[in-house]
Amino acid sequence: GQNIDQPTEMTATEGAIVQINCTYQTSGFNGLFWYQQHAGEAPTFLSYNVLDGLEEKGRFSSFLSRSKGYSYLLLKELQMKDSASYLCAVMDSNYQLIWGAGTKLIIKP
Amino acid sequence: ETGVTQTPRHLVMGMTNKKSLKCEQHLGHNAMYWYKQSAKKPLELMFVYNFKEQTENNSVPSRFSPECPNSSHLFLHLHTLQPEDSALYLCASSQETEAHQPQHFGDGTRLSIL
After folding, report:
1. What percent of chain A is helix, strand and coil (3-state, nearest 5)?
2. How confident is the model at residue B100, as a pLDDT?
3. pLDDT at A55
């Protein structure tokens, strides 16, 4: 079967760095997406990785290792507004998104 | 503003009621999706439309009936729902289904079944 694993909840301090991991087993691979979802709001697109390596976008970076079935989202200089759920999703060989259950990130002052 | 608008934002209905959820996208996309989001569970894909044609029905019970009159509008008609159908229903759109493009989501309809 297809499976995406990510931690249920993480806590970090304002100004610090946090890494959210995602491991996957899917039927084929057409890229991995990270989304941010604030409570009561729409998931919003953060990043897309299809090749191995690190993609940097401001305070957020996303890493992919296809051979290990592994990705992480790195958030630097954490701000209170970064408190949200972070969703990992893999596009399989049928171009369907397979979703993880999300990681709830709590930022403390 | 994501370019995808869902109405209503909240809906409370009894098990014998009939209601509809509406989704409209202003992004010029050709693919639209319905997802169910329950607490602490992954998003569950329900239906996919590409160029107004239904391309995916993920074994969804017949009490959920989608309608896609054009590429910008998507409806989900509800009847005789069960308490376990209470969830957040999200609509999304993308350029096409078979493309490495992100999906853009609406804020969802929070559905509660009494």
Report:
1. 5, 55, 40
2. 81
3. 95
